[in-house]
Amino acid sequence: MKQLTLTSINKAHSKEFNSQKKVVLKTGDYIMVQEKFKTTSIQKLLLDYQDILEQLSQKEVSMEVIKDMTFVYYMLLLRHFTNLNNIPNEIDKMVIVCEKLIDLNLLEEILSAFDKEELRKVDEMIKQVSENSKFLGEQIGDIFAKAALNEVVEGEKDADIQ
Length: 162
Known about the structure:
Layout: H1 6-17, E1 20-24, E2 30-34, H2 39-58, H3 63-81, H4 91-103, H5 107-111, H6 116-132, H7 134-161
Antiparallel strand pairs: 1-2
């Protein structure tokens, strides 16, 4: 039995979390993918996601934007768990990057390189936060309500034009 020291903590942490695998994509390019996700990295992803939800709740949102939230989630996964850590913070720019990856048939290839168990950890933490955070649930509800209201208003404008 050994005494716990900062050195042993650092070594154990490095051994556990500094492992990345190189994934060669069909384009010939490669991406480095984190093999094991740190809880703190998942928490940072959730904070980024919450910040984006907050940005959205301040804006006029359409149903299109809600579809974009899936794209944002994918981009945050890439930002936090690959070497593509320079993905922009702005929602519209994230969506553009995501659409390009989809069009190039690279997104699915990259996402499939993640360990399924690690992705499950992210999903579980999102569920946990959603259940525990009335605030997050309210934000998502507000965004949906605004989007639905905007769709109705847009529909009425179209009806007035005709």
